[in-house]
């Protein structure tokens, strides 16, 4: 075998040994003082063993082999770690040299559709107004394996979830309102915008005929469940849905009503205190059924009573709306009978 090549290979394998030791030391140093889960430690052990095997195979071919084949195999194992490292670096940095697709290019392949979408993405209100004249606004983009097929109104709202440098709030809202007024399907847009649009625009969608009982954006259940949240803004939108006809006694996939869902999320949390205002509204103004029981016997009343017990134990001061709801339950004859039979 060639002496110079042999020396180079031994030097490379020496560097591999040093790198392996450094990685092992770095791992133990970074995990000192914290619990390491089984998966993390398991993968590290596998990588360490694989590194030892690769180095050992390279050394074995180089030490015991006398042929050119042995030299080639030794070179393969010697430079394998370097090749893996370079491939990882390439995968991390090469995409930065590629031009990222715009949102319009991602969702629309048809040139005429893309032109309108680009104007929407650029926040060019005047161009959008001109381009949509005489156009079918509810046509959707080409179905994409990595994305949804959106109409223009849905696309305008989607831009709010991943705003780019050229995103501007006022032009975006102006375009959304323009598309609603021009006849875009409001029901398709309502789940898209339930968490992304201000309340006045949600009202515009509902006034334009959006179905408040449509499915959610994240889950296929009723939209009301996605509207319920911890902030006043979120809960005002949930109330608006109910005022516009959302059914408040529907159930989600877990078998919970909106009352039960809201109470389970709110619990004794200080951040979710406003949710008890929504719950009180559903009972007092929307006549939501708080007597419904799941097959396992859990009801809104039992959930609320458990929360009350926990609040007492943890000395949590609950909001006034919680105690108003609790009073309604305690004054209900059926609920008193139910508690007395427990």
UniProtKB/TrEMBL annotation:
Domain of life: Bacteria
Keyword Nucleus: no
Entry keywords, A to Z: ANK repeat, Membrane, Repeat, Transmembrane, Transmembrane helix
Transmembrane intervals: 7-30, 42-64, 71-94
Record protein name field: Uncharacterized protein
């Amino acid at each position: 075998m060639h002496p110079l090549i042999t020396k180079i290979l031994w030097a490379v394998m020496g560097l591999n040994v040093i790198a392996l030791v450094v990685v092992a030391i770095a791992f133990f140093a970074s995990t000192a003082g914290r619990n390491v889960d089984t998966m993390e430690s398991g993968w590290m052990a596998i990588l360490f063993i694989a590194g030892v095997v690769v180095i050992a195979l390279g050394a074995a071919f180089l030490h015991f082999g006398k042929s050119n084949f042995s030299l080639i195999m030794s070179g393969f194992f010697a430079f394998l770690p370097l090749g893996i490292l370079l491939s990882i670096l390439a995968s991390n940095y090469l995409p930065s040299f590629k031009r990222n697709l715009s949102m319009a290019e991602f969702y629309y392949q048809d040139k005429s559709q893309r032109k309108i979408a680009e104007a929407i993405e650029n926040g060019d209100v005047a161009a959008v107004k001109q381009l949509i004249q005489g156009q079918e606004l509810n046509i959707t983009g080409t179905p994409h394996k990595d994305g949804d097929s959106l109409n223009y109104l849905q696309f305008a709202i989607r831009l709010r979830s991943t705003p780019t440098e050229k995103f501007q709030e006022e032009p975006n809202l102006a375009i959304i309102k323009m598309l609603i007024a021009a006849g875009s399907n409001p029901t398709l847009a309502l789940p898209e915008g339930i968490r992304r649009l201000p309340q006045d625009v949600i009202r515009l969608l509902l006034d334009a005929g959006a179905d408040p009982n449509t499915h959610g954006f994240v889950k296929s259940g009723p939209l009301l469940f996605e509207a319920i949240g911890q902030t006043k803004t979120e809960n005002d939108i949930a109330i608006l849905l109910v005022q516009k006809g959302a059914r408040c006694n529907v159930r989600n996939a877990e078998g919970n009503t909106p009352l039960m869902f809201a109470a389970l999320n709110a619990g004794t949390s200080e951040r979710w205190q406003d949710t008890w205002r929504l719950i009180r509204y559903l009972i007092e103004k929307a006549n939501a059924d708080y007597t419904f029981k799941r097959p396992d016997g859990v009801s809104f009343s039992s959930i609320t009573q458990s929360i009350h017990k926990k609040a007492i134990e943890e000395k949590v001061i609950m909001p006034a709306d919680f105690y108003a709801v609790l009073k309604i339950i305690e004054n209900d004859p059926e609920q008193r009978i139910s508690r007395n039979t427990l």
